[in-house]
Design brief:
The structure holds two protein chains of two kinds. Chain A is mostly helical. Chain A has a domain of 30 residues. Chain A contains four helices and no strands. The termini of chain A are far apart. Chain B is an all-alpha fold. In chain B, 72% of the residues lie in helices and 2% in strands. Chain B starts with a helix and ends with a helix. Classes of the chains: A mainly alpha, B mainly alpha. At the A-B interface, α1, α2, α3 and α4 of A face α2, α3, α4, α5 and α6 of B.
Chain lengths: 102, 247
């Protein structure tokens, strides 16, 4: 149990340091121009990576047709101007129904 | 939900008064996903022998689902502590460029900026992105505010109830998080004003991440996919050459 508490503390400290490092080093100085060019594209790159990571998982073990169908339903709802939360609920219901039917 | 919060890809800068509220509106949706995931984390940690208090404290202090799951997995079956911490740290490494990116939008000296950067979590960071690498710190704070209590409360509920692992799946709740990220992506890339370069980078990131997932765990695959943003250097370089030639 002591190991668990020590690991929680260490992970919390390291996590804090990772987020604090950039601002602590950079302070109020503006980002260098080259860094800004990369940062401007970091959002779509990371977001796509998160989506692919969630949908496929390690060794693509998370690939699930019912999840893909639910995501498609959520996207369809969103494209029909549904609010984001409602679109997610549509996707969740679609996935649950597909799993219940399987 | 205001346009600024509802359509992250097509944002005008919200007013100072509205920004926090707009961020919170996005945050409540993300909090719903966080809550579901946290219930799973609490139940998993309890089953792994973490007891009642440790999972909740972990959620309060670490506040990173992927890192916490990595920690539980790393310690299972008497795993080595430092290796478990290292894997959790590796997963959290993506926050390094993310917090660096928001630094110019934060206020105060180095210490205050370092503290404000703790609000950086995936969904909030994307919601706060105004485009062209600019961020709104109030949207960032607003989006993170509901997620922290939802994450901690969900963990506590998971620890206390320890619901069966297949219940979440049967209810389709495992879709909540990926669906939110997909919809944010649709908004981010789907807006008419979004530069084609962002779409190219997104497609490149998808291919890199998918291929890396075949051979490495999720975290390094995410970092590898995010490296597609380095294509910005190429564009930056070509612009610089063009500017030099134009002189």
């Amino acid at each position: 149990m002591l190991t668990i508490w020590a690991c929680i503390a260490a992970t919390a400290v390291v996590g804090f340091a990772i987020k604090a490092a950039g601002p602590a080093v950079l302070g109020a100085r503006p980002l260098p121009e080259q860094v800004r060019a990369v940062v401007a594209l970091l959002a779509p790159a990371l977001l796509v990576a998160l989506v692919v990571g969630h949908l496929l998982g390690s060794r693509w073990s998370g690939l699930d047709v019912t999840v893909l169908a639910g995501v498609a339903a959520a996207i369809a709802a969103r494209l029909r101007k549904a609010p984001m939360l409602l679109a997610v609920v549509v996707g969740v219901v679609a996935t649950a129904l597909l799993r219940a039917a399987a | 939900m205001t346009a600024s919060a509802d359509q992250p890809g097509d944002r005008a800068r919200p007013t100072r008064t509205d920004a926090l509220r707009a961020g919170m509106r996005v945050g409540w949706g993300l909090a719903a996903g966080s809550f579901v995931l946290a219930v799973t984390f609490g139940a998993t940690a309890r089953q792994a022998g973490w007891g009642v208090l440790a999972p909740v404290v972990a959620s309060m202090t670490i506040f990173s689902g992927s890192a916490q799951f990595a920690l539980v997995a790393g310690l299972l079956g008497g795993g080595v502590g430092w290796a478990a911490v290292a894997s959790a740290a590796l997963i959290n490494l993506r926050f390094l460029p993310m917090s660096l990116a928001v630094t110019p939008a934060l206020h105060g000296g180095r210490l205050r900026r370092a503290l404000e950067a703790q609000a950086v979590v995936d969904g909030s960071w994307v919601a706060a992105h105004l485009g062209q690498g600019r961020f709104d710190r109030r949207v960032l704070f607003g989006a993170t505010l509901p997620q922290w209590p939802a994450w901690v409360a969900g963990t506590a509920l998971g620890v206390l109830l320890a619901p069966p692992a297949d219940l979440e799946r049967a209810l389709g709740l495992d879709l909540v998080f990926p669906a939110f990220f997909v919809l944010m992506l649709v908004d981010e890339l789907g807006s008419p004003g979004r530069a084609p370069m962002a779409r190219t980078v997104g497609a490149t990131s998808a291919v890199i991440t998918a291929l890396l997932l075949l051979v490495v765990p999720v975290s390094p695959a995410l970092l590898g996919g995010s490296a597609a943003a380095l294509l910005g250097l190429r564009r930056h370089g070509s612009h610089s050459v063009g500017e030099v030639r134009g002189r």
